[in-house]
Amino acid sequence: MPRCVARRSREGQALVEFALVLPLLLLILLGLFDLGRAVYAFNTVSNAAREAARVAIVDQTVATIQARAAQRAASLNIAPADVQVAFVNEDESNDRAPCNVPPGPNWVAPVPLGCLAQVTVIYRYNAAIPLIGNLVGPITISSTSRLAVERSFP
Predict the structure, then answer these.
(1) What digits encode the pLDDT tens for the residues 142-153?
(2) How many domains does the chain have?
């Protein structure tokens, strides 16, 4: 007498497992893409602050400094308003020195030698993947560069 045994088919199991794992793999892959974009943004912001500080040590015109930083970070669409420029003392406890006053946008007064030109570039990074963007929100990336003033206008 033949035995009737119900045999289960396993042919569709791999497809179901793949369908369950695929969204997780895509999220990890796209997350790595966003991480790469964030590292690129950080490097670009750091380079923009460094380049603008190099301009600031020889030309203390704030508009020129902001324009250079915006030019160096053009791929991120950084506006000149996102660049903060100040001239500070090397010793931050000395608040009576003339270079501790942050200049206005049209400030062209001479900066004494020995003051530090401080340039800060600020960028708000948003993730390209909506799910990741909703989890972490916008991230503020900023970089500050300080260099000693080498040339002062009379």
Answers:
(1) 999 999 887 765
(2) 1
The answer to whether residue 3 sits within a structural domain is no
Mean pLDDT across the stretch 74-79? 92
Structure tokens at 28: 């990890």
3-class secondary-structure state, position 144: strand
User: Any alpha helices (H) in 57-116, and if so which ranges?
Assistant: 62-72
**Domain-located, residue 5:** no
Is position 7 within any domain? no
In a domain, 88, yes or no: yes
Residue 1 burial by Cβ neighbours in a 10 Å radius (0-12, 13-18, 19+): exposed
CA-based max dimension of the chain: 112
Which domain range does residue 125 map to?
13-148
Other beta carbons less than 10 A from residue 66's beta carbon: 24
Asked if 131 and 27 touch (Cβ cutoff 8 Å), the reply is: yes
Q: What is the per-residue pLDDT across 11-40, written as a single tens digit (0 to 9) for each?
A: 778 888 889 999 999 989 988 999 999 999
Q: Which residue carries 């000395």 as its tokens?
A: 94
- Tens digit of pLDDT for each residue in 86-95? 888 776 655 5
